[in-house]
Amino acid sequence: MDHFINLISNIMESIIRIALTFTILAFCVNIIAQPIDTIPPTLNSINFSPNPVNVEDSINLQLNVTDNISGVDWIQVDIVNADTNQYQFISASIDDFASEGSNDYSKKFKINPWAKGGQWHVQSLFIHDKAMNILYQDDSASAIATFAVISSTPDTTAPQLNNVYFEPGSVNNGDSITVFINTEDILSGIDNIQVDIVNPIGEQRTYLSKSVSDWAVPGTNLYSNKLKISDYAINGEWYVSDLFIHDNAGNMLYLSDSLPSIASFNVTSDSPDGTAPVLNYFNVEPQQGVLFPTQFQGDALYITMGVEDDLSGIDKFQVDIVNPYGGQEISTSTISIDSCWITGNNEYTRLWPIFNEFAISGEWYVSSLYIYDRAGNLLFLDGADTTLATFYVSGVGEP
Predict the structure, then answer these.
(1) Residue 79, CA atoms < 13 Å, CB-side half-sphere
(2) Burial zone of 171 (CB within 10 Å; 0-12 exposed, 13-18 middle, 19+ buried)
(3) Alpha-carbon span 189 to 112, nearest angstrom
(4) How many Å apart are CA 319 and CA 393, to the nearest integer?
(5) Is there a domain that residue 346 lies in?
(6) Which residues on adjacent β-strands are paired with residue 222?
(7) What's the CA gap between 317 and 336, in Å, rounded?
(8) Which of 117, 177, 273, 345 would be 312's cystine partner, CB 3.0–4.6 Å?
(9) Calpha distance 124→92 (Å, rounded)
(10) Angstrom distance (rounded) from CA 383 to CA 366
């Protein structure tokens, strides 16, 4: 019996060794194969057809773009009407564009039915490659591309705001409050409403941003929505810092607290937290690493933070990193602190995979760090001012 158990054990060990050998070989092959890409894409041409185009008709955006190493990944084109600032944009993965031959891509989109007639133009464009290099162009130096729109029913007027108020006018921390917006747009109608709210010292920002279909309609031209006040909100008169109301034609009404007060309400809190988190230390490991797209082993950073917040506690954070020249930016986006390991007293660790097979060699660095507590207070640190953390990328080949 013992002999049989030993035999099975030896067979299993052999299988594991073989599997490990193939894994290592696959990883080595992948390392040798990867070049380095530090050059953003090149835009060779851009145009629209047909030109002119009627409102509600489809128009074809055509681009010739080259990227010799990693290839094009994402394209965004912003277009506006110079007279009204009516705005549309096309933003999509390269896989969502039609391929029309060597480096030629196209995508159709519809002209807004309320668009103003006349000349529209490309205001800005962003083209990303798969190495995360970005080509950015705007019309500040010269025109990029234009087309003409034929329209008989334009809406060039932004929505009108009649009133903003809160009910009840005074709440306790942790309560819900209802915001009411009385607004109208005679031609195309309201599309989206965003309300930004801050505490008396301009911190703990919270906001509502929803399509008009997600707002209740308690009366003519009246929209309402509920907002929960933080359990750690500070005392005092909270106020609307910014208000954005969009209509279906792309016109926008924007108001800020630099004008007379828009609307406010009072908060009474028995557990206020008006202090941002405190960062004691921050690092990323390993200090030596190779970044590749599919090899999870070795191609991840261990982000470790010594951070504390005595009242509400840490809620989430975001880390942005760039290469030695400030390019190929990679962001973790928002990471919940609840998804981290607690590796010490007020110490949190998170494994973060890196996907950039064309990363440039050298000492990459953390360009910015955002840490939020559960009260909405933000600690922001900029790596341009002081080095937050670095790690070394060992690339293959020449930049």
Answers:
(1) 25
(2) buried
(3) 13
(4) 17
(5) yes
(6) 182, 219
(7) 7
(8) 273
(9) 15
(10) 6
Same domain, 179 and 232: yes
- The H or E element that residue 283 is part of is strand 278-285
- pLDDT tens string 26-74: 333 333 345 678 889 999 999 999 999 999 999 999 999 999 888 999 9
- The per-residue DSSP string of 109-139 comes to EEPPTTPPSEEEEEEEEEEEETT--EEEEET
Q: CA Rg, the chain, in Å?
A: 27
- Phi and psi (nearest 5°) for 124? -160, 160
Question: Residue 390 pairs with which residues in a beta bridge?
Answer: 365
Number of domains in the chain: 3
Cα 334-125-317 angle, rounded to 5 deg: 10
Of 150, 179, 197, at which residue does a domain stop?
150
Torsion (CA) 150, 151, 156, 160 in degrees, nearest 10: -160
Q: For residue 381, what are its two tokens? A: 């640190």
- The DSSP annotation for 8-56 comes to HHHHHHHHHHHHHHHHHHHHHHHHHH--------EEEEEEEESSSEETT
314-322 and 362-373 as β-strands: parallel, antiparallel, unpaired? Answer: antiparallel
Judge whether 139 and 81 are in contact, CB under 8 Å: no
- Distance CA(388)–CA(245), nearest Å, equals 39
Q: For tokens 């999870």, name the residue.
A: 296
pLDDT in tens, 169-206: 999 999 999 999 999 999 999 999 999 999 998 889 89
Do 253 and 296 belong to one domain? no
SS3 5: helix
- Regarding whether 174 and 225 lie in a shared domain, the answer is yes
With 0-12 / 13-18 / 19 or more C-beta atoms within 10 angstroms meaning exposed / middle / buried, residue 386 is: exposed
Neighbours of 19 (CB within 10 A): 10
pTM of the model: 0.78
Residue type, 89: F
**Domain span at 199:** 160-268
The residue with tokens 């917006």 is 181
Residue 301's CATH number: 2.60.40.1940
